[in-house]
Amino acid sequence: MAKQDLERHLKILRDDRIHGAGELARQGLHIAAACARRWPAANTTDLLSALYEQAGIIAATRPSMAPLQQLLQRWRERLSALADYDLDQARQGAAALAGELAKISESAAERAAEHASALIGGGKTIITHSLSSTVLAALQRLADNKTRIILSESRPLCEGYRLAERLSAWSIPATLITDAQLGLFAARADLALVGADSLLADGAVVNKAGTYLLALAARDCGMPFYVCCESFKRRSPAMPPIELETMAADELDAPGWPGINVENIYFDITPARLISGWIDETGLQVASKA
Amino acid sequence: MAKQDLERHLKILRDDRIHGAGELARQGLHIAAACARRWPAANTTDLLSALYEQAGIIAATRPSMAPLQQLLQRWRERLSALADYDLDQARQGAAALAGELAKISESAAERAAEHASALIGGGKTIITHSLSSTVLAALQRLADNKTRIILSESRPLCEGYRLAERLSAWSIPATLITDAQLGLFAARADLALVGADSLLADGAVVNKAGTYLLALAARDCGMPFYVCCESFKRRSPAMPPIELETMAADELDAPGWPGINVENIYFDITPARLISGWIDETGLQVASKA
């Protein structure tokens, strides 16, 4: 992989507004694997040094997304074990390691979804916000089970539409609402279930803006609020303070007015005190264990 | 005014998504005045009986909006005082009464706005949701006073845009956000100020969907949440339970999917326990007096 190829891949990763943090982390690992296979290097030491640096560059593309940082960091830490290999073996080893981490992450997300669907059971009305691939997998398991979904548009890019499309395909009856109606409809649901872009070390969840509002409404209605994601989304206490990504203001498609600033911060932070339970690949953790 | 003219006016009132409850109530009174002037009647008794009926019909066009009900009810109750007048005098008297009530309502809204601006004072960052003519009048009084505004789009019709336009014209610096960012930005404001479509007898506020979410965020941030509106917006305990108006789903402009229901309920109810104070034409009432 040449430098300009890497930059092209990084741009795609940076500009991706479609995929969630888990999927983007796995895409980051695929970029890392491509670098391992093809980055120009004279010997193993050169290669590992370049890959170590690139892992940091890939991780930095999406600062709000813990799994990208976690998985690239894990990959980076294991590169030193390849130091005694010849160049070709080191390339294969580093690429295989990235693929393995991607599989571990994917399977963790699947197991988290299994735990969520088992915990929720049939016949429930579930309210969610934004689109999480892990929540989606949990909902798919709950089809044909008298499950009903209430979902929000999730402005500005309306990823709720993609969720609606999938629910419709799986014949799961659902109600689509504006984000502003989340409070009104919280009272009609049995529980709230959301994914996460990152979990902070104290259990707070970083997820699409509006998640905090749904959690407040859930608490006010006396309804449980669950977060479902693989443990790779948990940031270690050693990581720097989270940066909430600000996206282009023109995504709101608002007219311009002099003196009026348009803000488009993608994520908000829902404090741990508003969360009833965290569901990951190991099962459910309730508040007292957080 | 012929029957078809009345129906045309009622349709305009029913379909109006631009004006707030106070302005619609005054439009309702103007319709009542037009009926008083021109509705075919053989004598005073016939006229008053027809006007009594029409007042009920006008009030029923917007069931979520208390001032329309309150003001038309007040008008209706006073019609009987005109029973001894001749037909022309009764017409003039009923029309004048409607005009007088509209002026009282308008002046009450203006005084409420004065109280709000005096209470808030200069140098504050105020977060608001939706567009209230009373809040707008309060904000205009706070221009040139180091006031900053955070305002939401207010989907689906984005009446926040109209507020942004006015703030821009008055050179009040402001930040426009998606409704989903209300929680994130609540922490950056000093206080929340909203209008009301209706106040329930217990002090709960019926306002554009999303108001309840802002109130929850305000409480969570320890920030005061004020409601500013004239007292005509308070429903009497004798009124039937409030009906939250549901508008056309296609206002969301979402693609259609089989099995996915799109809901567009315009209003939510913010319970009195989340409200720090009510500002009306008489001044501020705090929670304990509600």
| Largest sheet geometry of chain A | 7 strands, mixed
User: How would you classify the quaternary structure?
Assistant: homodimer
Low-confidence stretches of chain A: none
Tell me the helix content of chain A: 40-55%
What spatial order of strands do you see in the largest sheet of chain A? 3-2-1-4-7-10-11
Biggest interface pair, counts: A-B, 49 and 49 residues
User: Helical region count of chain A?
Assistant: 9
Topology, element by element:
The structure is a homodimer of 290-residue chains.
Chain A: H1 3-15, H2 21-38, H3 44-59, H4 66-78, H5 87-120, E1 125-128, H6 133-141, E2 148-152, H7 160-169, E3 174-177, H8 182-186, E4 191-194, E5 198-199, E6 205-208, H9 211-221, E7 225-228, E8 260-262, E9 267-270, E10 277-280, E11 283-286
Parallel strand pairs in A: 1-2, 1-4, 2-3, 4-7, 7-10
Antiparallel strand pairs in A: 5-6, 6-9, 10-11
